[in-house]
Every structure is written in C-alpha cells, then in structure tokens.
Amino acid sequence: MTARLAPDDLALRTLARQFPAPTGTAVTDLVALYDALGPVQTQVPRAAFLFAASRLPGVTHETVVEAFDSYALVKGTTLRGTVHSSTPQHHAWSSAVTSVWLDKALAKGLALDQIGPDEVRARTRDYASDEWRERDDLIAHVADWLASQESEGHGTVADSYARNLLRGAPWLVRRPPDRRWHTRTDTLYRSSAALTGIDPSLAPEVARRELVRVHLGAYGPATRRDVAWWLGDKLRPVDAAIAALGDEVVTYEGPEGRTYLDLAGAPDGSDYAGGLRLLPEFDGVMLGYEGTGPERARFTALDNQRHVFNRVNGTTTPVVLDGTRLVAQWRLIPRGSRVDVEIVPLPGERAPSEDAVADALPAVEAVLETEVADLRTVARGATAD
User: Fold this and answer.
1) How many CA atoms lie within 13 A of 223 on its CB side?
2) Where in the chain is the domain with CATH 1.10.10.10?
3) Is the CB of residue 173 less than 8 Å from the CB of residue 91?
4) Residue 43 backbone dihedrals phi, psi, to 5 degrees
5) In the predicted model, what is the mean pLDDT of residues 130-143?
6) Across residues 348-363, what is the average pLDDT?
7) Beta-strand (E) ranges in the chain?
8) Among residues of the chain, what percentage have pLDDT more than 70?
9) What is the pTM of this model?
10) CATH number corresponding to 7-12+203-263
11) Residue 148: predicted pLDDT
C-alpha cells in the first residue's frame, strides 16, 4: 500500500535535506553541501554566497572565494540554459544533459548548414583549453572560423541570441577577471575538461540518471514533472532515468492524489530544526519544482509567486524562510561602506520577527564582508517588489 503524505509532510521532508545540521564552515564543508544539494542557480553572483550563508551560517567570504578560485566549485551555463554553480562532477553531468537540446538550439540559432553543432562546441573548447579567454575574444574566434567553414548566409553570429549560445556552451566554465566573485560579471571562459579533467563525452542517459538522484536527494519528495523542469528535460527520458534507478526510488501518494517520488531511506523531516533563514535569489526552495506546478506552493501561496518572480527579466528576489514558510522578501540597500536590510512581508504570511532576522544577519555580514547599518520592516507597496 502506497504511503500518503500531507502538505506539511512534504515541506518538512524537503527542508530537512535543504537545511541539514551544519558540520563546519571550511571549503570542504561547502563542497559537501553542494554535493548533497546539487547545482545552484547563480546568475546573480552574490546568490552563491548567500546560499552558502543560509546553509552554513558563519562561512566567510574568503572561504567561498577560495572554493571557486581553486575550482572545487565551478560556474557555467547548464540546467535550463541558466547559470549554475556546482561541483565539477555535477557540472559535467549537467552539461551532458543540457547539450542534448542546446545543440539543437545552436544549430538553429546559427543556421548551420555545412557543419554540426558538435564541431562548433569542439572548436570552442579547443580555443579555451590552454588559457582563460575573454568573452568577446571567444565569440570572435568562433565566428571567424564559422565564416570560413559555412556556406553564405549560414553560421552567422549576428545577434545577441547567437552570441549567448556560443558563450553559454556546456563544457565551458566562467569566472570574473578578479577575486570579486560576489559582485563582478563573468567575463572569462575556459574548457571545464581542461580544469577538472572530467571527460566531456559522458552519455546523457548516464548523467540524467545521476542528476535525478541528486534532485530527489535535495528536493524530494517531488513529482516527475518537477524533476523534468529542474533538469530542463522532457518527461520521457526522465521517466527512463527514474526506471533505471529501480528500488532506489519509492513513491508516495500526496495531496489531490498526486504521485511523489523520493529516494528510499530519505529523511522523513522529523529532525528539521526550523528557524529563520535569509535565502538568496533563485533559491532551490523556490526553483526545485515545476515553474507553473502546484509544488511551488509548498512553502508559500502560489499567488505570492508574482511578487517573488519578475517575469519580465526572469529574476527573483531574495526571500525569508521562517520555519516552514516563505514569509517575506528582503533586500540589501547600499549605504556607503555598509548596507541596510529591508524586509517586505508577503501577502497572507506572518511578518518575521525583527529579532529573528537580526540573529540571521551575522551570517550575511560574514559571507559578503559587509556590515548592516539598519534593519527595518516596510509595508508592501512602500518599496518596489
């Protein structure tokens, strides 16, 4: 008989794995966290730092920088064609899965005629194998080569979409020109294989199976649609990956008769410690589930998505998790060498205690190397979402 899970059960089971009891704040602890929770969406550079602080309070700015500078963590365009930070192995798996559809987009976006997307990717990797390449130099090099290989009117890199396809290639990693990882735009690109030694010819079905395991371990219980959305993949190959995991995956019946998947032996949520956390933009608590699916209401009302997500530019705001609920947005406001923190409660949720927020602020100060000058709660409408 299939076990039944109530909404509170789903929330607790997920939060117990998203916020495990911290074991330390060293680079090795941070890498272990990424191993457990998988790739983290970080097109806003500071999101990687705030993610670390929300799970490992006390981790310092220098520790996160060292993890990236030593390539214990890497950043690249992978899942859903968005920027993610991850361990080198997870980056490789994500690249293998993403390249299946991104290569098709490349062939169409560049109107390839004489050569295939795999040749374009190989040329890109080769150019960026021995040294870091500036973004514009990388695009210019591949564009010149394409012009010499393709028939007239094909292989053109004439618009921003085509350029983004080239520099957003799987198997490339990216970094800023200095150690200011939390504020600077990534302008340097290099072959991930050259840095990590991981073979770029991974079979997509193998990588997909591994990432399904990662997703369920980090966000489960989840539906098959949640897994597919997170991967940026289709349901049929995801179903095949789930089947390949066999007895590693168990099923539950949840609200409204939906079927949920989880790893056998995963935490039941009973050891979730609760508390208040200041989460970054694009946090997995929000993005671990299908964009238009009911699981986005696991931690706050679906109607609140319009406040958290900006559909015009695809960004999200940082949010406050209090216990099992996402209760507010928060933002950092520069104030000279310091910052102010502003809390904006979400509709229908109880405003967090300023004392509890204040207790969470030292983790933010440590990871961003800043000092909070003032903390205030403002009514919705008094500031922009």
Assistant:
1) 20
2) 7-12+203-263
3) yes
4) -70, -20
5) 95
6) 96
7) 40-41, 74-77, 83-86, 133-134, 172-175, 188-191, 249-253, 259-263, 276-279, 309-310, 315-316, 319-322, 325-335, 338-345, 372-377
8) 98
9) 0.94
10) 1.10.10.10
11) 93
